[in-house]
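Predict the holo structure. Ligand: magnesium ion.
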Amino acid sequence: MVVIPVISSKGGVGKTTVAANLSTVLAERGHHVLAIDLDPQNALRFHLANDPHQCVEGLAEVAAGQLTWTQAMRPGHGGTVVLPFGTVDDEQQIELEQQLARYPGWLGDTLARFALPDDTLVVLDTPPGPTVYMQQALRTANFCVVTVLADAGSFATLPIIERMVDKYCRPRADYGGSAYVVNQVAPSRRLNHDVFEMLRARLQSELLGVLHQDESVSEALASALPVHRYAPLSQAAQDLSVCADRLLARIAAVAANRAAHAQPAADPAWQMESR
Ligand SMILES: Nc1ncnc2c1ncn2[C@@H]1O[C@H](COP(=O)(O)OP(=O)(O)O)[C@@H](O)[C@H]1O
Ligand SMILES: [Mg+2]
């Protein structure tokens, strides 16, 4: 199981779009994908669920002990499985957040107990900035996909995310690294282009890829389809495929590196004989 939260310091930067469309592409590449909505907006369902209106209940009801995980899961595009956030009023949300704050490892422990197939990719959609949901996600993350815009605000808030990742992810041996997606890239806009170059210089190998500003993205959402189904030849569909393939390559590289280091040392007696 590989846990991949999609995070950002700011709202409206495309986290849910990236989480949903990466999930669909990864599932269509043959992986089991479980996409979990950790955002009380409960919006992932509109991007990913086959029937968003069947996604009224979800993680909130699971955490409250009213539903099992299996009961809350819904089928999503491309063979994904979606766990919606569910529906809470203000008081229920405060109670849930207090519960999550008291048990910061709840999500990780629950996922570990849930016997998911070994090759499952668990994609987590999160609300912006430091929240109990992001803490839960980062504590169990193996890779973080960080979504940023090519604007001054995103650039200025990079340290917020870096501090969170440094605190909750990097000290763990099972953390594979951060992968930044720069969204709404529009090379014809001078400032956008300049900030993108600054981001590229700052992020270096942690830059996973870009998602160009493309009206196919919002049209696909309005049509309740993944981008690569709605407009397979669009720039955005190509960008999302590139990001998904690079993410898979990074996951495979980290797994291969671990396997190489986990090999038992050669038997010295055998080495002597073979000389
Ligand atoms: N690359 C893009 N091109 C055009 N519109 C986009 C792009 N990425 C996201 N959007 C639109 O921006 C809005 C916010 O995206 P969303 O994924 O909901 O952000 P977040 O989850 O970070 O709040 C949505 O209406 C979405 O369709
Ligand atoms: Mg969102």
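The longest helix spans residues 235-262. The radius of gyration is 20 Å.
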